[in-house]
Design goal:
Neuraminidase
Length: 370
């Protein structure tokens, strides 16, 4: 049963269209996703070339075509560092099969340096993978480049590179609204503090992806160099197609925003409105996802508002701004939490997150309603 509940008031001065409604499955919201309890995988994300620092996480969706190494339910992880340890030099996307814990994972994609693959990682139903890159040569802003988006086919071959001096300025994260023949890709730009929407056409059976429109839909998020993280700015994105809202995790602002009319607008809506601002539980939010129970989940990178007693926390909260729960992905040094992803298969929820301290992808499987 799908029901609607009032969005409510988000706090003093933080109302998000009080007349709006949030849709979710009532049965799915029996309990939070966080903390996950049934861990099913913990796999190294470093391939044979020694790339490190896993950033982006994406599940291969249902309906992804046969013929290549990927299958629905597989997890892809992008690496930001090469074996040199320098940030912004990683060139690989690794592939992890469900139920498989190999000591070395295969590289689905191995690009040509210089790259530095970011958290901007997603998979299209028509058989393509999209990944962002932002390069450095010394792990600092002194050598950082604008970067681009790479479009890769289901066999792991580079199809095309999308670059734009204004609209793709440091592609740091992305989320996809995918209808098969047409898809919208929302991209956060860490260097300019903006968000761009790409409207794509992918004809059935085509070996190409066609960009029909590129629109800057949000801007004025904080963006700054950072000694630990190289650069901080808008990062994680989550799209609610029922409400046409795009949620933005703005690391430097230490807040989560909601941008209205994200899938339809051809205008810049600024930052949108704050939906979650919590200095107790937010510590530089990075990855962001909208969970099947209707909540949002973000990963704290700890480069902003660090709390030594709450390092590497993944936080669940409602779209109306209420804290739900958190858990620690790693008990060691700060900066372990980064990319995450959630998917649903039947009555099962799969929750995956990288641990940058161990270099692993950890995955949990939960049953809805228990």
């Amino acid at each position: 049963m799908r029901i609607k509940i009032p969005c409510g008031v988000l706090g003093a001065g933080l109302m998000l269209a009080m007349t709006c409604s949030a849709q979710f499955n009532a049965a799915d919201h029996v309990r939070p996703i966080v903390p996950p309890t049934n861990q099913v995988l913990s796999v190294s994300t470093s391939p044979s070339n020694g790339d490190t620092n896993p950033y982006g996480v994406a599940f291969v969706p249902k309906g992804f075509p046969d013929g290549g190494p990927l299958s629905p339910g597989d997890v892809l992880v992008s690496n930001f560092n090469s074996n040199s340890g320098i940030q912004g030099t990683g060139t690989t996307i690794v592939q992890i099969k469900q139920g498989n814990n190999p000591s070395t994972v295969p590289a689905f994609f191995a690009g040509t340096a210089p790259l530095g693959l970011t958290t901007a990682l997603g998979v299209l139903k028509r058989g393509f993978v999209i990944v962002g890159n932002v390069t450095t040569t010394d792990s600092t802003c002194n050598t950082i480049t604008q970067g681009s988006l790479l479009i890769i086919d289901r066999y792991g071959n580079l199809v095309t590179t999308l670059a734009d001096a204004k609209l793709l300025d440091g592609p740091w994260d992305l989320t996809i609204h995918d209808d098969g023949d047409f898809a919208q890709v929302f991209v956060s730009n860490v260097l300019s503090g903006t968000v761009t929407r790409l409207d794509l056409r992918i004809p059935f059976g085509s070996d190409k992806v066609f960009v029909e429109n590129e629109t800057q839909i949000a801007s004025h998020y904080g963006a700054a160099c950072n000694s630990a993280a190289v650069v901080v700015g808008p990062t994680g994105l989550a799209y609610d197609d029922d409400r046409d809202l795009l949620y933005v995790a703005s690391t430097d602002d230490n807040a989560i925003y909601a941008v209205p009319h994200a899938g339809r607008t051809f205008q810049d809506h600024g930052t949108g409105q704050v939906v979650y601002s919590d200095n107790v539980h937010l510590h530089g939010p990075l990855g962001l996802t909208l969970a099947p129970n209707g909540d949002l989940i973000t990963a704290n990178g700890d480069a902003i508002n660090q709390d030594p007693n709450q390092l590497n926390e993944i936080v669940e909260f409602t779209p109306s701004g209420k804290f739900v729960a958190q858990f620690q992905v790693d008990t060691g040094a700060a900066g372990a939490a980064f990319g995450l992803a959630v998917t649903q298969r039947g009555n099962k929820i799969l929750f995956a997150a990288v641990d940058n301290n161990t270099g692993n992808l950890d995955e949990w499987q939960e049953t809805l309603g228990h």
